[in-house]
Amino acid sequence: MENKEEIIKVLIDKINNANDLKTLNDLKVEYMGKKGIITELQSKIKDIPNEQKKEYGMNVNEIKNAFETNYATKETELKTAELNKKLESEKIDVTLPSKRIRKGSKHPMTRIREEMEDLFVSMGYEVYDGPEIETDENCFQKLNLPLGHPARDAQDTFYLENEYEAFLLRSQTSTGQVRVMEANKEKGPIRVVCPGKVYRRDDDATHSHQFMQMEGLVIDENVSMADLKGTLELFSKKLLGDKTEVRFRPSFFPFTEPSVEVDVSCFKCGGKGCPLCKQTGWIEVLGAGMVHPNVLRMCGYDPEKYQGFAFGTGLDRFAMFKYGITDIRTIYGNDLRFLNQFDRKDD
After folding, report:
1. How many C-beta atoms surround the C-beta of residue 176 within 10 A?
2. Interval 28-72: pLDDT, tens
3. In this structure, what DSSP letter does residue 148 have?
4. Chain-centre distance of CA 339, in angstroms?
């Protein structure tokens, strides 16, 4: 070990002269690897006479400590330099003008649905979103439209197999009302709205084979047509304006009795008459009525104790009214030129 000082001087010089991490790592292999200089010095201790082993071991440790200390210092220096170089080359000039990031916007149907849901939730209703594939029993039979009923023809339903087989694409979200009534094991009061997609064999400027409905159901003791009218008046005024008036006309629906068509005063002309309302001053917006006793009975309710009202409207129709859309097919066309018009906040 007469060359201890020389060995330390040489290794320090080599470490200081290393210009990159690869060169530095090669020095680690040269000195600390399996066949490295320091490793070989450590392996020779077994051949050293006993009286010299202590001094020899101390000298080898001094060489090893010198290498590790200088190596760690140089490694930190090179890593810092490399990081600073990378940061310098990848830095961003925040003063440059940014590129415009294209962003999406809510679909008009989403806007209408959320607005209606928020309104009814504020009135104490729950929101139920049922399945779009339904049974004939839920879609027709439990809504007082038995097999062979002529009103089925007006639905133009998409059956998944032959007509009257097990499954079909629901033609109305009233199926959600059936499910809610059946799920209510205690057969107590219900206040729910059921939004979602429905499917019928229609396709023109004002009808689509797929469209969206929202139907509402209230069941309780002592429910009357007055409750229904008050609910729909509030609903119409919130969506179409405080000056909106509501008119009931007698109609027929198998699942309600009595049944009504509901008109609102034309929000464009104020009831004076215009092309939108076909010079009548009124626009039909939904159907409603008192829940038929047969429907209550088939869903487990006692019609002698409970009454209820139901209503249903097309979300597409309200979207067309509110946003001035003239062709329902554009709503589902996914044309960005059309959808970009709704990249704004509602007034």
Report:
1. 26
2. 888 888 888 888 888 888 888 888 888 888 888 888 899 899 999
3. T
4. 18
Q: Which pLDDT band holds residue 125 (cuts at 50, 70, 90)? A: very high
Sign of dihedral through CA atoms 102, 107, 108, 114?
negative
Cα–Cα distance measured from residue 9 to residue 125, given in angstroms and rounded to the nearest whole number: 85
Q: Give the pLDDT score at 247.
A: 93
Domain boundaries defined on the chain? 4-90, 108-342
Can you tell me the distance from the alpha carbon of 123 to that of 118, in angstroms, rounded to the nearest whole number? 9
Q: In angstroms, rounded to a whole number, what is the distance separating the alpha carbons of residues 222 and 89?
A: 77
pLDDT number for residue 99: 78
DSSP strands (E only) in the chain: 126-127, 133-135, 158-159, 167-169, 190-199, 210-220, 246-253, 256-265, 282-291, 307-314
Q: Residue holding tokens 């509030």? A: 234
Residues 67-89 have pLDDT tens digits of: 899 999 999 999 999 888 888 88
Fold of 108-342: BirA Bifunctional Protein; domain 2 (3.30.930)
Sign of the Cα pseudo-torsion (86, 88, 92, 96, in order) = negative
Tokens read off for 321 = 């009214």
In sign, the C-alpha dihedral spanning 26, 32, 34, 40 is positive
